[in-house]
Amino acid sequence: MGLPTQRLANNAMAFVLAGGRGSRLKELTDNRAKPAVYFGGKTRIIDFALSNALNSGIRKMAIATQYKAHSLIRHCQRGWAFFRAERNEYLDILPASQRIDEVNWYQGTADAVYQNIDIIDSYGVEYILILAGDHIYKMDYEVMLRQHVDTGADVTIGCLTVPREEATAFGVMDVDENDGITGFLEKPADPPGTPDDPTVALASMGIYVFKWTFLRERLREDAANASSSHDFGNDIIPSIVKGGRAVAHRFDKSCVRHPKAKTSYWRDVGTIDAFWKANLDLTDFTPELDLWDRNWPIWTYSEAVPPAKFIHDEADRRGSAISSMVAGGCVISGTEVRESLLFTQVHTNSYAMLEEAVVLPYVNVGRHARLTKVVIDRGVEIPEGMVVGEDPEEDAKFFRVSEGGVTLITAPMVEAWNAAR
Description:
The protein is an alpha/beta fold. It has helices at residues 46-55, 70-79, 109-114, 117-123, 141-151, 212-223, 232-243, 272-281, 392-395, 411-419; strands spanning 12-17, 38-39, 43-44, 60-65, 90-95, 127-132, 136-137, 155-163, 171-175, 181-186, 200-211, 246-250, 266-267, 309-311, 313-314, 317-318, 320-322, 325-326, 331-333, 336-338, 341-342, 347-348, 353-359, 364-365, 370-376, 381-382, 387-388, 400-401, 407-409. It is 22% helix and 28% strand. The longest helix has 12 residues, at 212-223. The N and C termini lie far apart (79 Å).
């Protein structure tokens, strides 16, 4: 009997690109980068990429930050500080710090890796996974690493299988019968189908696997090219597709899903509507995203808070939550909560009503407030008697109402509302 094959994750590192603002989330990213935005009651978006890496067996990680990184850095320091160098484990936070010269910050996704070549070299790894830090999904990267080695690819690209009509918003792979990539098209008007099913297309997830020695040379060549935008999707990947061997990895093969799930779960919560819906989807009877799976947990920073509490039991003043998720530290005092998701330390007061509400941490809801189909930013004080979600035209005078009718409420917006009263 032969010896068991060593996990490739033991000799790989994850490099997480977490520098983007995520401007489509509007005021939610005024003070934090998109990967630092809260999600799912107690986690942040970046926790999914980091947890996937950890659960896959990867113990060397780096996070490249740039836009308003303090919230993200603080979260990682608090929630991801359990790596031990003496066990050959590392999690480095790499802010854009003009390491190459005194002029340039990170100029693109490829440049973010290029500027940290010496740090990656110090890890002594054979393989590198480039990950986007702003998507919600559960994936075993070991499966993708194994395919990369078995196919002898120069780059392996994680791909979603999506209906062709939806693929126009993605970078799309044109592939042969063996999923070898023959073309890379950025947001094509007429996406190519796959050989096995012409009704679907393969869309890039922004996940790439390389042998480190190979990528290092490509990054140096790209850095010397003055006409390059120094971006993986625009420069590095198309050049490999043209002159090397690029292979698609279908997410369906490595997705970690609920046993009853019929589809592979992946979400880009990059708009207010998508963010609101993905959070509220977790309140479904059997959510597509399984956060209860103890074999593939989503790790995060957990505050030391008491359990949630529901108080008052009168006909019109009953603390209750129906088809909802309520995090620790919440006090639901005489408030009716329906189909909502409340993050840590949300306090509500008597006679208030929340329906289809996504409420970020440390929000206080005043008496008699009625809030419907809203996203409330961290730390907002909802005034007594405020009504939002019943008159879109009136809401739009002070708050941001999305195309889908979701109202975003932030502290400055509430200040403007108070001043106008």
